[in-house]
Amino acid sequence: MTTEQQALKMHSTTRHWLIRTIRCTLPLLLAWVALPASAHNNNVYVANQFGNTVSVIDMATNTVTATVPVGTTPVGIAVSPNGNSVYVTNATAGTVSVIDAVTNTVTATVPAGNTPAAVAVSPNGADVYVVNANAGTVSIIETATNAIIATVPVGSVPLSIAVNPNGADVYVANAGDNTVSVIDTITHSVTATVPVGNSPYGIVAGPLGARVYTANVDSNDVSVIDTFTNTLTATVPAGNGADAIAISPIGIPVYVANFADNTVSVINPFNKTTIATVPVGNSPGSIAISRTARVYVANAGSNSVSVINPFTNKVVATVSVGRVPSAVATQPQSPW
Question: May I ask which residue range the UniProt record assigns to the signal sequence (predicted)?
Fold first, then answer.
């Protein structure tokens, strides 16, 4: 087996091996968000799992403008709300790299738990939440000090995480026991556990915080959670190997990356229909949406990022990045 084949095999089972280690919009209508000009970060950040780097893509030109070395096996990435910092989870190293978005350099390396798999930032930028897959915990990092201030036990094999836009709750998808843990951000404790589909690999909170969606890789569907009652209210079919999910800032549509189909499902979550199915690169495993109304899909099997125009649901650019891109992120969007 060649090195590249080994790389692809590694990513195609990235989240699977984490599990085995434990248990063996409609078109996007908002083209711009009312943020101060100084807060605009017009880059896309891609964590390259096998390359131990982050590729920085300029949204305007769809070209890679920088490559930042990080820790070993980067598999998760998030951008701070102000666009100034990028956080990368390094699964093998057990750390989080903090990148200065202005200089594209690592300014801090924060120890996390066993196998940090995903990361999210609080809406006010004060806290970073890291899911540790092999520990079954969430590490909470205070951004002012880059120190862990709490560790919260969650379910089995947590692989993804999302924060309610109101900042009150954090949602953790536990692939090992098919649940979502709801964490109170004040008490740092789990207040609810919600059963969802089989092997939830991806999770996203709706722009108003009323709904949370999980992409369930083994049941090929999306679970819809009502955050007021913390109950499952709907299940929506997706493609084969639904393992990553993102949502428009107006709450429709939902985008689901289907790892086994090499497609992205564009879903209306309200009437539970598929608006479109968009062919992308090989083995899409992560998805993000920018303020400029573009959808970015990291294709682990083709070492590329597909750029989708949501008005046409067509790929308008393909950007070559590092080896086995496992995660993609942009500056968070405000619904207000």
Answer: 1-39
